[in-house]
Specification:
Layout: H1 6-22, H2 28-35, H3 39-51, H4 71-79, E1 81-87, E2 102-109, E3 119-123, E4 139-144, E5 153-158, E6 161-169, E7 174-177, E8 186-188, E9 192-201
Parallel strand pairs: 1-3
Antiparallel strand pairs: 1-2, 3-4, 4-9, 5-6, 5-9, 6-7, 7-8
Helix pairs in contact: 1-3, 2-3
């Protein structure tokens, strides 16, 4: 669906509001009079709105202006969804969310996200975290941060791969714990934390 110009948006809102107030749509002449333009100019706006599928096709009646898409409702729906970058293979030495690291984007309802934080998403690969309810093929939504507390499930950068593990800080090392007895834990002196697990998204 193509974007509307400012004048087209104004015309569409007028047609919508007029129809609600009068229980019938305006004529093209009434649209022209409202905006102080010629009938031809009003007709051009209407034609553009029909071509962009915001108004119903003409049935050659004088009052055939029927709104198909309420742009204010459409904008409200869009504002309730947040675009989150989906990471692929992470290139060492490049910013986390640079184009080389991205596979695409997903859209997440804004109530799922905490205000003031940045997020990214990962596609889970493997079964090392199954006992935490994280399955192969799931989408993990990660809240960006560079620190964690014991027990947090974190996204960490190991070599050139991002993996999910449960974080524990031991006296002389860090334990990245798997949640599957078939997988060994990872021990290291330092770790590059990218963020903490916020939500798991699964499509059945």
């Amino acid at each position: 669906m193509k974007a509307l110009t400012q004048r087209q948006q104004e015309s569409l809102r007028f047609i919508r509001d007029y129809t609600l107030e009068n229980s019938r749509p305006p004529t093209i002449r009434e649209v022209a009079e409202h905006f102080g333009v010629t009938v031809k100019a009003a007709q051009d706006r209407i034609t553009a709105l029909r071509k962009k599928n915001f108004l119903a096709p003409s049935d050659n009646c004088s009052r055939s202006l029927r709104v198909l898409v309420d742009i204010d409702e459409k904008e409200k729906e869009s504002s309730e969804m947040v675009s989150v970058p989906l990471l692929g293979t992470v290139a060492i030495g490049k910013p986390l969310l640079c184009a080389d690291n991205l596979e695409g984007r997903i859209f997440v309802p804004s109530p799922f996200l905490r205000k003031g934080f940045e997020y990214f998403a990962l596609t889970v690969k493997g079964e090392s975290m199954v006992r935490a309810g994280i399955m192969d093929g799931d989408t993990a939504l990660i809240q960006q941060c560079d620190a964690a507390e014991d027990g947090d499930i974190v996204a960490v950068l190991l070599d050139d791969a991002v993996t999910l593990k449960r974080y524990f800080k031991e006296p002389s090392r860090i334990r990245l714990q798997s949640e599957n007895p078939d997988f060994k834990h990872i021990y290291c002196q330092d770790v590059h934390i990218l963020g903490k697990l916020s939500i798991i998204i699964r499509i059945y």
